[in-house]
Give the backbone structure.
Amino acid sequence: MDYLNVNWLAVLLAMIASMALGAAWYMTLSKQWVAATGKTTEQIMAGSGGQATPFIWGAAMQLVMAYFLALFTPAIMGEVTIASAITVGIHVWAGFMLTSMILNHRYQGSPWSLAVIDGGYLLGVMIVQGVVIGLLG
């Protein structure tokens, strides 16, 4: 596998698109998400390392997600199309992202509503990134 043979523009644009999805998702579900964390907004902000820190980490992690989606799609599916990238993204989400998140949330005693909100967002990330990567190949 050639680890540098990805469409870097697609990876970057996929990260930007999924960050935009996150802004819309969590602005819409902000009250429910804060309630599901069991913390106040002030407690969340105090533990986040500053207002920009979560967004910097979010962008970096979503860049990694987009990179691996762009890397895995042709290796698994043989081609990069919208359908193939979304298919790989959904499988990665179901097999690794969702399961890891639920495992962590169960040990942390978090409510299922947090898993639904965060898990739904991560599924959206994989679909949006799959569309962008599939469009740009």
In short: The chain has six helices and no strands. The first helix runs from residue 8 to 28.
